Amino acid sequence: MVGYKLTYWDLEGRGEPIRMLFAAANVKFIDNRISKESWPELKERMPWGQIPILEFDGKVIAQSLTICRYLAQKYNFAGRDPWESAKCDEYVDALTDLVGGMKGIVHAENDQVRATRKAKFLQETMSGCLGKFEELMASQVDSSFLVGGKLSWADIVLVVMLERLETPSYAGPSLLDTYPNLKMIRIAVYNYPGIQEWVENRRKK
């Protein structure tokens, strides 16, 4: 039996889609959450000087989306054929376009710059991206998922991104009032066996 060890910070962030994939697949793993104090020593041993990393069978995979894609392919959350797999990749790539804008807000040099960047991000970058996903889901027939009528890693990455966007640093908790179809995806992901238990236990911490 493969013994997986995920190393990441003691927060959700880039590690959470990986944890949710393990939960959905009902695969046990070591959730190695590290502190900032231990990072300088660990950083030198990281393949790219970053986390998360996934270790198993003497092997190491770095980069969060690479880890997600590996697990999704291994445990059947990457579509049923090359076309569906490509659509999963497409949707995840579209979501990563949001990350640059989010970093620009967090790392702004002062409050005025932060407010300007945030307003532009919310009105242009975020609304444009989420609007496309809302339209996509509106066109789906009898499905609460993005690809092939079943849960994929793209759904999980989307839901984790929505969680981040709902924080006060970005759009706030009322975000999904504007996107009812995205709210439907989140409900479906949260109710998925394994993920439901993971989210419930996470909220108790």
UniProtKB/TrEMBL annotation:
<dbReference type="InterPro" id="IPR040079">
    <property type="entry name" value="Glutathione_S-Trfase"/>
</dbReference>
<dbReference type="GO" id="GO:0006749">
    <property type="term" value="P:glutathione metabolic process"/>
</dbReference>
<dbReference type="InterPro" id="IPR036249">
    <property type="entry name" value="Thioredoxin-like_sf"/>
</dbReference>
<dbReference type="InterPro" id="IPR036282">
    <property type="entry name" value="Glutathione-S-Trfase_C_sf"/>
</dbReference>
<keyword id="KW-0808">Transferase</keyword>
<dbReference type="GO" id="GO:0004364">
    <property type="term" value="F:glutathione transferase activity"/>
</dbReference>
<feature type="domain" description="GST C-terminal">
    <location>
        <begin position="81"/>
        <end position="205"/>
    </location>
</feature>
<dbReference type="InterPro" id="IPR010987">
    <property type="entry name" value="Glutathione-S-Trfase_C-like"/>
</dbReference>
<dbReference type="Pfam" id="PF14497">
    <property type="entry name" value="GST_C_3"/>
</dbReference>
<dbReference type="InterPro" id="IPR004046">
    <property type="entry name" value="GST_C"/>
</dbReference>
<protein>
    <recommendedName>
        <fullName>glutathione transferase</fullName>
        <ecNumber>2.5.1.18</ecNumber>
    </recommendedName>
</protein>
<comment type="similarity">
    <text>Belongs to the GST superfamily. Sigma family.</text>
</comment>
<dbReference type="InterPro" id="IPR050213">
    <property type="entry name" value="GST_superfamily"/>
</dbReference>
<feature type="domain" description="GST N-terminal">
    <location>
        <begin position="2"/>
        <end position="79"/>
    </location>
</feature>
<dbReference type="Pfam" id="PF02798">
    <property type="entry name" value="GST_N"/>
</dbReference>
<dbReference type="InterPro" id="IPR004045">
    <property type="entry name" value="Glutathione_S-Trfase_N"/>
</dbReference>
<dbReference type="GO" id="GO:0004602">
    <property type="term" value="F:glutathione peroxidase activity"/>
</dbReference>
